[in-house]
Specification:
The complex is a heterotrimer of chains A (385), B (399) and C (260). Chain A has 385 residues and is α+β, with helices and mostly antiparallel strands. Chain A contains ten helices and ten strands. In chain A, 54% of the residues lie in helices and 15% in strands. The mean pLDDT of chain A is 96. In chain C, α2 packs across α5 and α3 packs across α4. Classes of the chains: A alpha+beta (385), B alpha/beta (399), C alpha/beta (260).
Chain lengths: 385, 399, 260
Amino acid sequence: MDYFLNEQQVMVRDLARRIAREKIAPVAAQYDESEEFAWPIMKVLAESDLFGIYIPEQYGGLGGGILDMCVVTEELSRACGAIALGYASSALGALPILLTGSEEQKKKYLPEIAGGRKLAAFCLTEAGAGSDATAIQTTARKEGDKYILNGTKQWITNAGEAEIYTVIAMTDRKKGVRGASAFIVEKGTKGMEFGKKEKKMGIRASATREVIFTDCEVPAANLLSREGMGFIAALKTLDTSRPGVAAQAVGMAQGAFDHALEYARTRVQFGQPVTGFQAVQHMIADMGTQIEAARALTYAVARMVDSGAKSISRESAMSKLFASDMAMKVTTDAVQLMGGYGYMRDYPVEKFMRDAKITQIYEGTNQIQRNVIAANLIKESLQKD
Amino acid sequence: MASIKVHLEKCTGCTLCVKACPFGAIHMSEKKAVIDMALCTLCGSCVAACRFSAIEMEKAGGAKKDLSAYKDVWVFCEQKKGVVQSISYELLGEGRKLADKLGVKLAAVLLGEGLDAVAESLGERGADKVYYVGHPSLKAYQDEPYSEVLSRLVEEYKPEVLLCGATTIGRSLISRVAIKADAGLTADCTALDIDAKERLLLQTRPAFGGNIMATITAPNHRPQMATVRHKVMREAPVEKGRKTEVIKKDYPAEAYASRTKLLEMVEELGATVNLSEADIIVAGGRGMGGKEGFALLEDLAKVLGGAVGASRSAVDADWISYAHQVGQTGKTVVPKIYFACGISGQIQHLIGMQSSKIIVAVNKDPEAPIFKVATYGIVGDVNEVVPAITREFKRVLNK
Amino acid sequence: MNIIVCIKQVPNTTDVKIDPATNTLVRDGVESVINPFDAYAIEEAVRLKEKVGGKVTAVTMGPPQAEKALRDAIALGCDEGVLVSDRKFAGSDTWATSYTLSAAIEKIGDYGVIVCGKQASDGDTAQVGPGISAHLDIPQVTYVRKIREINEKTAVVERMTEEGFDVVETPLPCLFTVVKEINTPRMPSIKGMMRAKSAKISKWTAADIDADPAALGLDGSPTRVVKIFTPEPRKGGEMISGSAGDVAKELAELLKGEVV
């Protein structure tokens, strides 16, 4: 389907597709097995300027938008959702700075992220604060021109690998959600440590660790926006980034589908390629249609984000919900289509299925997305009355 | 300026030329061939394909040169550390046939230092004459003195045909000599023959990626120069005691001058991978799964006295070094037996090995394209089949 | 230092298919790409520039559409492109091609290093690189797998041989042909691609490079194609099946005569 991408988006898509095919696909299984972080690939993405596509030109980027970022994430995910996540998570870590940072903060940090010289990471989740992000326990206490951070962030993507962390911590517990603030913390800051690498079902090449703050001193200049704006920053960030998760899901579904279709065309049973059987044809039709529908929604929402629309929570949640549920279904069907071969690690399809599962969970579980969507729909309906 | 035209009265509209054109430059209009000059590269494919002489290519002017002074077939004999390389014996074997068809002598050219006895010995491989130039700067191959001395020999003695191995040395040397001698040069010929009437060397080589063969001549230039790959021609047999005439030449000092300086020659361990020399190659691809898989191939290669080859994906995955790579961006090989283990058979790989005499393919995927070119195909797990083959040959060969 | 890299546009072999009915190449929809070997030459030229400074000029001889190969080269880090294109070059064999390119290089002038891929994937001759250095009468080192040292005047490089490698010192200017082992080519960058889009490509005809008309194209090419034919396609042979032990036995029996 033609999405009428602009010239730069087409260029970016073709380059990302080529990198996925030539550089990522050949090593995807290997990184999945070794669970290492794919630094050589991050270097390729950096040299190709892809880390900076959604960052304005004055901060060393290419001035594109979230749609550009989605297109890249999707293409990379077609080869490996885990390696693509290293890329997309850096964007997630950069967004709070881009959306709420001061000119000074943007000038200091964004060019490094845009050039891919440094990765970023976003630290919100805690052991007791998953879907209920308001329950976070990490605190930031102001002392002179510093904030002292204490607490442990859990399941932080890119942790240990990234250089720049945007962290949500409570500056005033009494104020509840209005007592949270966002900070930029650089790796190497005293009092900041990383926990052990988590063993995961899928996206095994992505680094997931705890980030532990023990009397970690952060300069007051690293406070994003002002005290009390932490949750707003987090919500804005997630609203903006969710189409990226959707794009990752679309990419993985497409990657699994490509393999399964190729297999079905050449697999001969009962004397003919299995694509000759209507049961298989209908699966192919459904998978292809579902992917396209998810892509169309994802791109439409990304365009809405790029247009500067104020209220995007509902649409952003819809794209993530729909695309991730679709990806789980399509990757499962891709395994089914390939039968026993699909279940074997010799073929890349089972990995897509394992990797796809996380998209239903992270950046807000799909149950939370439904809550958000329903709440918005009901609120809008009430307003109309 | 050269041009090409279709003689409409002769064109039957058979479309052979359309199919032959590698550049899609010919289409049919009212059942006659029309050449799109924007696409045509004057490659001559259509002229050669037309059965009705309806396409003619004209070269501008240039009176036919008197080429009668050129005679004899020469073979450049490559030596390393004073040892003549087997490719040179293969060329002497082929050169003998060509010289006989032309009714001329076969001469060997040997450059080196202190190789008088070696020069003599080339008679036993069929050389009627040996041009030998001995000089310290010719001891090991260097581009400039080698090409200068060979060019001077060519200019002085005027061979009709000059053959050279398509080796790293041969290809580097002969390309320079062809420019200096203003001669036609055809690379990597797989067949050579003589048009006795026109005294032309008919040089056949793969073209356009190896799926088409082209026969090439150099009608108005001498010598007619060609390179040939290893293992394509049969080695000249040894005729013990056969004598030859050794012509020792010396040139003024400037002929031996070299601007480049050879500082060191390094032989690498494991570079026993001279793939182009191997009679048996045991090659592996992505399906070998890792370095452990290649250890299985080494076992088999050892038992068979062969070399280990690899597909690009195995090299890219760092399971084995680039020196082992067979295919488009690696080496082209023509062994007697090529074992393709866990290699799917992408066209880039096939280009490098499909001329092997026997291809044995082992792959777990029965649909793998490699089976389309394999002499013997085995569908199975390389980790079981390869060790079983190794054990069997060990037994058969009493090793 | 001014560095020149010679490139060629070739059909992408990954796209090439054989028509099973006519057993001829299907070239419809086959994309034209930079010769895979030239990618290493471009990368090495750009790395040399990054090391010693100067600029890289990519040169190609070909039809007007070869301009794309030059823009791709600029996206990969080359600074300028020169397209040598003229109907008069049609029918060039390696002699005429190397003559034409050497004439263009003389016009560019003032170069320290010329880098070429070891051969082109469509012709596979490996003759044009050495041909250029012969026409220019400069030293050459072929099959270079590493440039160890280089300054304005000399270079020390490793030349790959069948047995290992030679270490060769050469004065500059010099021509190198390079092998795959020399580097891993980078991907183009978006900024490079944007630069490439607007970069000026010099287009030179036969008259511009002051070449001898008799030495160009088909007229200047000593060789002629006299016959084109399709070789018998290699046919798949027999399939051997059974347990690993059984197939090994059968294979050993079949290959008995070939293995000594």
